[in-house]
Amino acid sequence: MKPSKISISALHEKEGIEQPDIFSKTSVEQIVLKRKIQPSANDLITRILNQDKVALSRAITLVESTNPDHLSKASEVINGCLPFANKSIRIGITGVPGVGKSTFIEAFGKHLTSLGKKVAVLAVDPSSTISHGSILGDKTRMEELVKDENAFIRPSASGETLGGVARKTRETIILCEACGFDTIIIETVGVGQSETAVHSMVDFFLLLKISGAGDELQGIKRGIMEMADAIVINKADGDNINKAKLAKTEFNRALHLFPAKKSGWIPTAFTCSSYTKEGIDDVWKTISDYLELVKSNHYFEEKRKDQNQFWMMETINEQLKNNFYNHPEIIKQLETNKKAVQNDEISPFAAAMNLLGNYFK
Question: How far apart are CA 231 and CA 264, in angstroms?
Fold first, then answer.
C-alpha cells in the first residue's frame, strides 16, 4: 500500500533563516547604563548655559521631583543658572478647555520663531484627583512647534498644587531663560484656579475666549477679566467670523467698566484664527506695545520685584506646610485626630490647634 500524501496548507511556511533582532542588545544596555549615570549639578549648569535641551529637561525633572535627595541638587542648579536668567518676556495664556489654547500657542510660537525668537512653552496638564495621572499630550497637539529647533515644549502634571503652578514652574522659567530662551509661554490648566498663580509670574497675561458660548455675558464679571492685559477671541474663521467680531465689541465694552491698571496700559480685545493665522501677528504687536510702555514707565521692573517677594513668601508657606506634615510626631498624631474629628469627639478647629501647638513645641 502506498503511503498517503500529507496535505500541506497553502499558508504553510517553510523554516528559513531566523530573523535578526530589530535592535542591538548591547546598544540597549549601553543606553540604559548611560541614562542611569546622573550628571553633576555643575555639569548640568554648564550644558544648560550651552543651550543643551537634554540637560534642560533633566534639570526640570529634578525641580519637579518629590524625592528629597533631588532637592539640594535642584537648588544648586537653580542658583548656578540664576545669574543668567531674567532676560526673557514671560507670557501667561489662559482660557476655558476647548477654547483652543494649544492650537493658538503653536500658531503663535511658530510666528515668534519666524521672527528669530527662541520660545519655551511650559504647559500645565491637569492631574486626575482619582488616579493622580496626567495625559501630558501638549507635544502631540503642537506637532509643528515641537519640531522647531528654536522651540522647547515641556508639559508638566499639575499634581496637587492649586492650579498646577507653584515653585516648580517658577524655577523652570529660570532654567529656560538660562538656556537662552527669550520668550517663555505658560499655558494654564484653564479651570479657573490657576490664573492667579500664573499672573504672579508673568509680564503679560492673555485671556483666550470664543464666541457663541455665552462668553459675552461672562465678560462683565471681574476676577480673570481684571487680570487680563488683552483678550483674544479665537476661532474667528469660517461662519464664526461675524460672531467673533460681535464678541470683540462686547468684550471691549466690558473692559471699560474696570478701573485703570497700575501699569497705565489699557487692555483691548481683538479676534484671531489659529487655523488661518489671521490676527496672530496682531497678538505679538499688542504684547510689544505693552512692553514698550511698561519698560518706559518702569512698571516692568517694579512688577518683577513684587513677584520675587510674592514667591519668597509662597516658598516659605510651602516649606512650612511640608515640614509640618513630614514631622514624625505629627504623622503619629494626625490619624488619631482625624478619627476623633470624624467621630465628633473634638471639633476640627480644636484638633488643628492641638496639632499646631504640639508641632511648635
Answer: 17
Reduced 3-state DSSP string for 102-157: HHHHHHHHHHHHHCCCCEEEEEEECCCCCCCCCCCCHHHHCCCHHHCCCEEEEEEE
Per-residue pLDDT of the chain (361 residues), as tens digits, is: 555 555 555 555 666 666 666 667 777 776 666 666 778 889 999 999 999 999 999 999 998 887 777 888 999 999 999 999 988 999 999 887 788 888 999 999 999 999 999 999 998 765 443 433 344 445 566 878 888 999 999 987 655 554 345 668 888 999 999 999 999 999 886 655 566 778 888 999 999 988 766 544 454 455 677 888 999 999 888 888 888 888 888 888 888 888 888 999 999 999 999 889 999 999 999 999 999 999 999 999 999 999 989 888 888 888 888 889 989 999 999 999 999 999 999 999 999 999 999 998 8
> Which triple of cell numbers denotes residue 157?
502634571
SS3 call for 224: helix
**What is the distance between the alpha carbons of residues 220 and 269, in angstroms, rounded to a whole number?**
13
Strand order in the sheet with 204-209: 151-157, 119-125, 183-187, 89-94, 204-209, 230-233, 268-271
The torsion defined by the Cα of 248, 254, 260 and 262, in degrees rounded to 10, comes to -60
Q: What is the DSSP string of 67-110?
A: -HHHHHHHHHHHHHHGGG-S-SEEEEEE--TTS-HHHHHHHHHH
Is this prediction's pTM over 0.85?
A: no
Q: Are 47 and 55 in contact (CB under 8 A)?
A: yes
Give Cβ neighbours of residue 3 (< 8 Å, ≥ 6 apart).
Answer: none
